[in-house]
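debug: dumping io for the single-chain case to check the tokenizer round-trip. Nothing else runs in this session.
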Amino acid sequence: MSRRIALITGASRGLGKNAALHLAAQGFDIIGTYHSKAGEAQTLVTTLEQSGARAAMLQLDVGNSASFEAFASALGETLKRDFGRDHIDVLVNNAGIGINAPFAETSEAQFDQLLNIQLKGPFFLTQRLLPLIADQGRIINVSTGLTRFALPGYAAYAAMKGAMEVLTRYQAKELGQRGIRVNILAPGAIETDFGGGVVRDNSDVNAFVASNTALGRVGLPDDIGAAIALLASDGAGWVTGQRLEVSGGMFL
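debug: decoded output
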């Protein structure tokens, strides 16, 4: 039986990289995308291949929807050439950026950048890739705990993620006839370089988050990668249209 294939956007670092490692450990081959860090992307390919998975990396700017047609063609060619397949089994819409700006000071340029990367990008990328997603496949979108609780400075970012949560339910409803399960994962605060690494590197922020989390610590990349692998697994086959918060019980 051939290994299943997962496509992960923003896989060269952070949560995308961790998801790739966890999915590979669960028997998936990996196609990842990177924006500009080709060296980091190739390093991950080497690591995945050493673990026994097949892997490839493709360049993609999720904020530029005009590039999606060419990307889909490149993905189709890569699938045939390197994997002997016509379809992927899992799409993880992970790529994104964080902008911390008070509502009163958020610029239109910042808003548009978040819109293009966090909402328009995954909307139209997923739409374009539908012919390449296998029936009975999985789509896993990524949200944030900030759609449930509010922290100053994330109004625009959280609004885009809130829209993704609504979109997830519509995707689940409309793609269910193909057996495609669509869910959205909402991480809490995680120790990565996201947003300049503030949760990881600022001891005061780290302590604040830990003190407001039921399990008493800040989240780690492995917490999220493992949850993505869970949603991609056969055990989650009767789960669709759901928001799964993976925050350790932050702000309960």
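debug: round-trip ok. The radius of gyration is 17 Å.
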